[in-house]
Design a protein that fits this description.
The protein is mainly α. The protein folds into four domains: 77 residues, no CATH class; 122 residues; 117 residues; 113 residues, no CATH class. It is built from 23 helices and four strands. The strands form two sheets. It has a two-stranded antiparallel sheet. Strands 3-4 form a two-stranded antiparallel sheet. The longest helix has 31 residues.
Length: 533
């Protein structure tokens, strides 16, 4: 709608509105049309436009409404506002003054259709040219708009913003579909594009009419940063985008989500900055981790003895230094702990070394790891301790509790258990089994020496008793029996003395009954003696 002030083209600015009637208008109209007829091109030059008689006729017809006579007369005398309505000259906004007529609803209804058209153009232009001062000054005159003309006043700016949203969404979609030209090295350029597309000062100055569009902008930026995080795993770009997003005047149910995303990304970004700063330290501990991990396979394949790996780990790792590292080393601590656990498992599963397995898991327990990881290590430790109790007599010599058992030094003993007894036929049925009890070479020698001395003393006493018995009324048999009784006691005493000097358990049935391989069976009723009827 082109604005033409009929009062101005009729040159009635100086005439009181109460004096302007049909006769005055007709007289002024005749003069106007005569001037047009006498002009070179039969047009009236008005504010840079060429008006025909028809254009002027339509404008003059507006004066049939008495209110409009007053309104046009006011505008004809308000040069800046009149200029703006006619040709968009924005000098008005350099020193806009509030006037009492602006409070009249009738005046706003009259002015708004003209004003909205010019506002639409200047808002778009100042937004595109980043002319913030004029942009905000224009928006401050929004009270001169009737609500029914908001669409006309803000249409072009709204379309511009919508177009920018679509451009950002295109970037997001191209990244998501892996069709984008962006790489991890230049993806940060997206931040500049978003900042330029959605300038905070401009958008936050907009009236409530644009609120839903601002919320859409926020959604669009959030979706972009999520896509970038997934595709490029960069926190710096995402953090910058979210910081820009949260500067907007958002009034949306999604705002808490945006704030939560920002908190998470910021925390993750700070961790990465810390990691980069401490990269040399991490690198050194990563080498240590790889060294520990490399030993697992060597232990499994028995290319490295289990007792050597404990010393290797103790020499390689200072648990105190590892635990002193800040939170950026949480992951490396956890991985080192798990590697020690793997070594512990290999020591037990592949080399049956319970002591080394326990030493390694106890070392892992000293590392400051997350609670759930620590609980796992504690569970492993408890299981290994149970295994140690159960297999102590197998993995370590039961008699000296020090040396590992040696092949060929076992003690073989047969045990029996009654299964059925028939009272009247005096018959008994039983099961039996032979148990090989591991023993070290040292204990076998001690037991062997004690056994030899037992036999010497035992048989010596029998012979001595037989000789003495023969000398006394030829009762050599009785003497031999007495000598055997004496010899058994004396021999046992000598044997026990020899074993005690060696600091080990003896190999008597009483001692064997307490061996881990036999103690449960003895409680179940097994004996060393064959059941008899």
């Amino acid at each position: 709608m082109n604005y033409i002030n009929p009062i101005e083209i009729l040159k009635l600015q100086a005439v009181e509105t109460t004096s302007i009637d049909n006769s005055v208008i007709k007289k002024a109209k005749r003069i106007l049309f005569a001037d047009i007829d006498l002009s070179d091109d039969e047009h009236l030059n008005y504010k840079g436009y060429k008006l025909t008689k028809s254009d002027c006729e339509r404008a003059i017809d507006e004066l049939e409404d008495k209110n409009k006579v007053e309104f046009f007369s006011h505008l004809a005398n308000n040069r800046q506002l009149n200029e703006f309505l006619a040709n968009g000259n924005h000098e008005l906004f350099n020193s806009f003054k509030q006037e009492s007529i602006y409070k009249l609803p009738e005046f706003i209804i009259f002015l708004s259709p003209y004003f909205s058209v010019k506002i639409d153009r200047v808002l778009l232009k100042t937004f595109q040219d980043n002319y913030l001062e004029l942009f905000t000054a224009v928006l401050r005159t929004g009270h001169l708009l009737n609500q029914s003309d908001f669409n006309n006043a803000y249409k072009s700016l709204s379309n511009e913003i919508q177009g920018r949203i679509k451009e950002i969404d295109k970037i997001t979609e191209s990244i998501k579909e892996e069709e984008s030209d962006y790489t991890e090295y230049d993806i940060d350029e997206v931040v500049d594009i978003v900042n330029a597309s959605f300038p905070i000062e401009f958008l936050n100055a907009l009236p409530i009419y644009f609120q839903s569009q601002i919320n859409i902008i926020a959604d669009s930026i959030n979706y972009l940063q999520l896509t970038i995080l997934y595709e490029f795993n960069t926190t710096a770009v995402c953090l910058n985008l979210l910081e820009h997003l949260l500067k907007l005047n958002i009034k949306s149910l999604s705002k808490p989500t945006f704030e939560d995303n920002y908190s998470k990304i910021k925390e993750k970004h700070q961790e990465r900055v810390e990691q980069e700063k401490n990269a040399p330290v991490i690198k050194e501990w990563a080498k240590i981790l790889l060294s520990v991990q490399s030993k697992v396979e060597e232990v499994e394949e028995e290319r490295l003895k289990s007792n050597s790996v404990c010393q290797f780990v103790n020499d390689l790792i200072s648990i105190k230094e590892l635990n002193k590292l800040p939170s950026f080393a949480d992951e490396i601590r956890t991985q080192i702990g798990y590697s020690m656990r793997s070594l512990s498992i290999a020591c037990w599963n592949d080399q049956s070394d319970i002591n080394s397995a326990l030493s390694l898991i106890r070392l892992a327990l000293k590392i400051e790891v997350p609670e759930q990881v620590n609980l796992k290590f504690k569970q492993d430790h408890a299981e290994l301790e149970e295994l140690e109790k159960k297999y102590k007599g197998i993995l370590v010599c039961y008699f000296c509790e020090n040396n590992p058992p040696d092949e060929g030094c076992d003690i073989s003993t047969t045990i029996y258990k009654e299964t059925k007894r028939t009272l009247f036929s005096s018959r008994v049925q039983f099961s039996y089994t032979t148990i090989n009890i591991p023993r070290c070479r040292y204990c076998r020698e001690i037991h062997s020496k004690g056994g030899k001395k037992f036999r010497i003393v035992f048989f010596g006493c029998i012979i001595a008793g037989a000789i003495i018995g023969a000398m006394i009324e030829e009762h050599y048999i009785i003497g031999a029996i007495i000598g055997a009784v004496v010899g058994w006691g004396a021999g046992s005493s000598v044997q026990n003395s020899e074993v005690s000097k060696g600091g080990i358990k003896d190999d008597s049935e009483v001692s064997l009954a307490k061996h881990p391989l036999l103690v449960d069976r003895m409680e179940e009723g097994w004996t060393f003696s064959e059941p008899s009827a």
